[in-house]
Amino acid sequence: MKDLPSVRDLLDSHDRDALLDLIQQLLQKEPDLFPIVELSAVQKTHATASTSKGKSKAAKAALLDLSTYERQITQTMGMDDLDSIVSNLEFLAEHGQALVSNKDWVNAARLYAMLLSSMSAGYDAIMQSVDYDGDVACFSQDFAEKLGYVMEQGELEPMLRQTCLQAFLSGIERDIQIGGIDFAYPSSESLVSQPTEDEWPEIEAYIRAESKRSSRWQKECWVRLLAARQEQLGSDKQAHALIHELGTPEQRAFLLVDEKQFEEAVAIASQHFTTLPGLVRQFADRLIEAEAAEQALAYMLEQHMSESRYSYDDWLVKYYENHGNVEQALEIQTQSFTTKPSISGYDKLKVLAQTIGTWDAVYQALHTQLTEASNWLMLLDIAIHEKDAPDTFLWFNRIKPGQQVRYREPVADVIATHKPGKAIALYNQMVDELIQRKHRSAYRQAIPYLRKSKAVYLAMEQKKEQMISSQGDWADALQALLQKYPTLRAFHDEVKKAGL
Which of 255, 233, 234 is nearest to 243 (CA)? Predict the structure, then answer.
């Protein structure tokens, strides 16, 4: 590596005009550097103005000209190149930090409030799609955090405080609009804790107005903010009153549960939650936590018996099981399996039935039911799951050829000992199909099937039993396969590397 002279040494002999010419050339070649030059000039002007004010404590600090910063942040939020956006925001953040380091609280507050407001205005759907990892949003969090810190340090004039509080509000509003990604966090904490008694009424009026015209989730966010303010002031009673007055049905119902007003809470849930299955479950679980198990069961049975397309069988099964009523849990699980058979449902049914010693009867009943319904696929799934080789072979031959394709490997795995010849034939089908694709990645996919086929051959040889269909031993089978595709050298190579 070659040692390069420092920039200072290189330019030491240049006069002012020469340096200006050089800077002009650099900017023509790299226009993205212009913000650095422009903001540097603003800083220099501010520093000169501050010096002229004198060092007296009574001297009023010179106000920083924010127009250039505002133009820069607006242009930055309109870009579509993430690296350029982040680079510009880093530079702006450095300017803010410099003001904080100098304890210039007034100008720091003015700058951070402007940056936060501008970012909130510019962080639209397009910017959000560009900011896929949240790199840009992180700067909004930094600006909000620094603004809160600055407000705590300096005594700001009322108008400036109002500007800062509005900046927090704009960050919160943007975060709510885009779905709650913690944009401009911790703006909500600052907006709750920073306003004075005189400043809060205007903020509350705005939030109340927004909550009335907002969607369900957005309204919940706004009301939560109002309640948090009252909790900050130590007035939980007033916070609860606000939720009862302005809250969404979810907020009111859950609060009523906390207040042990179960009947009223269930009434709200029954009216508003029916089409929201996740919320139905969450509400029932909250009732359980509040030691209102009977009310939770009654509510879920009501949902279960309704004409809703959502099923709550699993919740009811778990409830009855946890409360010692396994027979009732088994009845619900049986109904659930009958309506929508699945392996997970089968496993749960088996566990419950074995607990009370009725599995043999339950198994026979569901087996008969599936057979009468000609549900060969479910019967096959169960046979494979239980590794029942005779039944697996039986039900595999009942399903349609098109359905057999996706079952070949699991079926072959199960029947390898019971029907080795059939298992080998299934493995060979999959191997041939992959070889027909004629590319190396497909050959590699065929190797595991060849290994399984080899294992079946070796098992048969160890038992010294005669192979079905005159298949001979593994060496003969492999040689026959290679001779079948003599020109596919890549396939031969993969077989050799696999050590088959």
Answer: 255
Q: Which amino acid is at 51?
A: T
- Which amino acid, 87? S
Q: Residue 262: which region, alpha, beta or left (left: phi > 0; alpha: psi -120 to 50)?
A: alpha
Q: Could you tell me the two tokens for 450?
A: 């060849």
Contact 352, 333 (CB under 8 A): yes
Q: What count of Cα atoms within 13 Å lies in the side-chain half-sphere of residue 126?
A: 7
pLDDT on residue 22? 73
Q: Decide: 186 and 145 in contact? Cβ < 8 Å.
A: yes
pLDDT of residue 59: 41
C-alpha–C-alpha distance, residues 29 and 429, integer Å: 64
pLDDT of residue 209: 96
pLDDT (average), residues 433-441: 93
pTM score, whole prediction: 0.76
Q: Higher pLDDT residue, 12 or 327?
A: 327
Alpha carbons 8 and 50: distance in angstroms, whole number: 28
Q: What is the spatial distance between Cα 249 and Cα 260, in angstroms, rounded to a whole number?
A: 16
Asked whether residue 250 carries a pLDDT value surpassing 80, the answer given is yes
Q: Which two tokens stand for residue 227?
A: 């309640």
Helices and strands (H, E) in the chain, number of each type:
29, 0
What is the rounded CA–CA span in Å between residue 189 and residue 185?
A: 8
pLDDT for 412 equals 96
With H, G, I as helix, E, B as strand and everything else as coil, classify residue 495: helix
Q: Are 187 and 172 in contact (CB under 8 A)?
A: yes
**The predicted structure's pLDDT at residue 41:** 57
User: What CA–CA distance (Å, rounded) separates 468 from 415?
Assistant: 14
